[in-house]
Amino acid sequence: MSYAVKERFLTLQGEGVHAGRRAVFVRFAGCNLWTGLERDRATAICQFCDTDFVGMDGEGGGRFPTAEALATAAAETWGMDRDSRFVVLTGGEPMLQVDADLIDALHAENFFIAIESNGTLPVPRTIDWICISPKAESETVQRSGDELKLVWPQEGSNWQDMQDWDFANLLLQPKDAISDPAASKGHLEQAIAFVQAHPKWRLSLQTHKILGLA
């Protein structure tokens, strides 16, 4: 199969357990939690998306005809050093496109593979690091992995049940109100209060935005 990629770039992982780690990001086009063909927030199940996953016109984006072609492109983005290669598959929803061929091709290029998924589709354990970010009003079928990252506040989110899912790390991330700094500050305060009250969870910040990185 071919792969539709919105963008591909070298940066630092900004969120979660691997925050601060050099990474190649591969952002796949498309998401199953948007009901319209256009990027219309009024038709979305997920109401707080902060990324553009429509089309293939971003930096390093395009349609890659094979898994090997995409893996080679990711390796070129990383550079010559084959040690400590780290790729983050994200979206949109990457599991709409990620398959065994791509996982094998990235491993052949010596990548440690991380994925950031909404959990509505099964994620194979052959992926090295599974991060799931559940969205209220959608069914989370992937209830195991390395990192559960819950955006907060999120009305209708059953965080109590999530504590019993099979994840090594439970992270709470303040919702970015994007154009409303006061609301973002309030979300941060709510997240801090939540973690103080529920010590199974840890605070995750979007450090790439603080640092001005992609």
How does this structure look, described?
The protein has 214 residues and is of the alpha/beta class. The chain has a single domain (3-211), classed as Aldolase class I (TIM Barrel). The protein has 5 helices and 9 strands; from the N terminus they run βββαβαβββαβαβα. It has a 9-stranded mixed beta sheet with strand order 3-1-2-4-5-6-7-8-9. α1 packs parallel to α2. The protein is globular.
User: So how many helices?
Assistant: 5
- Contiguous runs where pLDDT drops below 50 for at least 5 residues: 36-45
Q: CATH topology, anyone?
A: TIM Barrel
The CATH class is identified as: Alpha Beta
Q: Please, what is the average pLDDT?
A: 91
Helix/strand/pairing category: alpha/beta
| Share of residues in strands | 25-35%
Per-chain topology:
Layout: E1 3-12, E2 22-28, E3 62-64, H1 67-78, E4 85-90, H2 100-108, E5 111-117, E6 129-132, E7 144-152, H3 159-162, E8 166-174, H4 181-197, E9 202-203, H5 207-211
Parallel strand pairs: 2-4, 4-5, 5-6, 6-7, 7-8, 8-9
Antiparallel strand pairs: 1-2, 1-3
Helix pairs in contact: 1-2
Characteristics of this structure?
TIM Barrel, alpha/beta, nine-stranded mixed β-sheet, globular
Short summary:
This protein has 214 residues and is of the alpha/beta class.
